[in-house]
């Protein structure tokens, strides 16, 4: 089956784990920027983005050379946009498309936050998700919405976009406000080296997976198969057009045949309790 785009075409042995959505005492977070880095480092994270509401936080990065730190901001207009790897805020009266495009010009990563936040599950409406262009992805999981109205998950919105052929990645972010959230969600990138540029490239190109507890050790998409090896999944599912589950395999690893999918193929790994991992879609001809 011919592949239109395969984010896992290149493979490296190194996986780095990070959180892209983090608040500190500069807005409504519990920890100072320095303490934030300290806790993430102790919990085994390799990178973290500091993304306070409409303010750029800085930390004493020299004290924590083992963790890669991205500056950033959560642009908190009526809807929220995560801008990672930028060093200045933008005014709220700009259109969302301008916010996206200016962030891209500045070398940033753009993620639309928690689409299903709110009692109507529509912090971002479908019409906005479809109308806006060039953002890298959406939060398919946001931990802080576990404590608020709406759903922390947005797999339904993701599958709608993917089913229309939109190349949009799915990120799992903590939206860390409290220490107890640290470790609840992450993105693991597959990279050639431990550098900010390598991490950003992987996040832009889709060479990562999103997780709430399942650890993926290998993703291979080649020769008509989509193979995923995990450390701790109980079941793997192949998902295609409109979110249909086309196959389920028990155990910690599975090899799926791409000819069972149409449009796109992605894999969900189901672990104990709420633990999940989501690989990125491979787009098919
Ligand atoms: Zn936030």
Q: Please give the CATH class of one domain.
A: Alpha Beta
Number of strands: 18
Strand content: 25-35%
Residue stretches low in confidence (pLDDT < 50, at least 5 long) are: none
Series of H and E elements: EEHEEEHEHEHEEHEEEEEEEEE
Distance between the termini: 8 Å
> How would you state the average pLDDT, rounded?
97
Structure write-up:
This protein has a domain of 199 residues: TIM Barrel. It is α+β, with helices and mostly antiparallel strands and 285 residues long. It is globular and about 50 Å long. Helix 1 links the parallel strand 2 and strand 3. The strands form 2 sheets. It has a 15-stranded mixed sheet that branches. The protein has a 3-stranded antiparallel sheet with strand order 11-12-15, with no helix packed on it. Helices cover 16% and strands 34% of the residues. The model has no long low-confidence stretch (mean pLDDT 97). Bound molecules: zinc ion. The site of zinc ion has 4 residues, from loops.
Outline the secondary-structure elements.
Blueprint: E1 3-5, E2 14-19, H1 33-42, E3 47-50, E4 68-76, E5 80-84, H2 96-105, E6 109-112, H3 126-131, E7 137-142, H4 155-163, E8 169-173, E9 186-191, H5 196-205, E10 208-211, E11 216-222, E12 225-230, E13 235-240, E14 244-250, E15 253-257, E16 264-270, E17 276-279, E18 282-284
Parallel strand pairs: 2-3, 3-4, 6-7, 7-8
Antiparallel strand pairs: 1-18, 2-9, 4-5, 5-6, 9-10, 10-17, 11-12, 12-15, 13-14, 13-16, 16-17, 16-18
